[in-house]
Amino acid sequence: xxxxxxxxxxxxxxxxxxxxLQGSGEVDLDAxxxxxxxxxxxxxxxxxxxxxxxxxxxxxxxxxxIPNPVTARAADTFDQxxxxxxxxxxxxxxxxxxxxEQRAYSTAAGSALxxxxxxxxxxxxxxxxxxxxxxxxxxxxxVPGNFKFAVEGANNDAAIHQENKxxxxxxxxxxxxxxxxxxxxxLVKASRATVNMTIAAFESYxxxxxxxxxxxxxxxxxxxxxxxNQPGGVAQGGKGTNGAYTAGTDMVETSAVTEANITxxxxxxxxxxxxxxxxxxxxxxxxxxFYALMNKSKNNLIEFANGRYYxxxxxxxxxxxxxxxxSYLGDFSYIVGNYSQDIAVVKSxxxxxxxxxxxxLGSCVFDSKAIAGLGAFVKLVKKAA
Length: 385
Fold this sequence. Notes:
It comes from Ruminococcus intestinalis. Keywords: Coiled coil. Pfam families: Phage_capsid. It is found in: Virion. The protein is α+β, with helices and mostly antiparallel strands. The radius of gyration is 39 Å and the shape is elongated.
């Protein structure tokens, strides 16, 4: 539109109307008044539009860009992690998803089963550490597939170097611990009432039942696993063949636990490992065989401080996995474990149809082994009478 031309036409028309009003002929005052108002309004709008265009031309008024709907959708900053967590949990419950939840869920990477949300996975790991604190002392990795962990083999002492003499390379060696993976599962049959739980309550429920069961099983393997068709652990942490313990070398066998054989087994622990060492035994073993030796008026062999028991300065870790009379002392950072597949949770409504329930299956792939032959672990066994 030519704004200047139209504004001139309006002024000309207003002049004509003024002449009509000033003339002696009959006129329709209402019609002229209405037309004048309309012309004034149109003229003001044209003035405003002309001023805006002029401002854009000289840069005083920015142009308004019309957003591209495709670009705007791609740049959407909705909370992906939060929406995915909500979508994953609601899918387990069988609830409908919002549009944002569907978007987040459809972008889940991996296999046909979407991965457990990071925040929920962290809660599961946190719960596992609460149930089995020994896991915090072990070296635990999350590496997909088979895993080989390098360990120190022969380690010669440092030597004095004489000036200008050639340095001889020490005959040190490097070994390794190879881990594969064993599937650990927990099947839970739950009431259909779980569908009515809030997201937070349902997450807490899943974390509680799945994490606790799997953590207790992994802890059991760390203490009594054989390493044959199952994860291994401290039971194969000795200096002997295949990690066996040998009486007089890294094991004491006795008919009654005494101060003398406690100090003897402590002395068998290789130098340096006592800094991070803990005793591991069942509560029954401690209170039946060790507790009676606590006599602060005589020595500090056994102490109680800050809610924990200590034997020769090393904390006592209670576990129900070890048999009565069996105890270990060692640095559990020399237990290496790996989740070659992190914990996953799936549900089935069909398997629980007959009982009107829902089945939830938690699973992971895990393996563990002790780094044997270093003297990082010793064993005290009270033989049955």
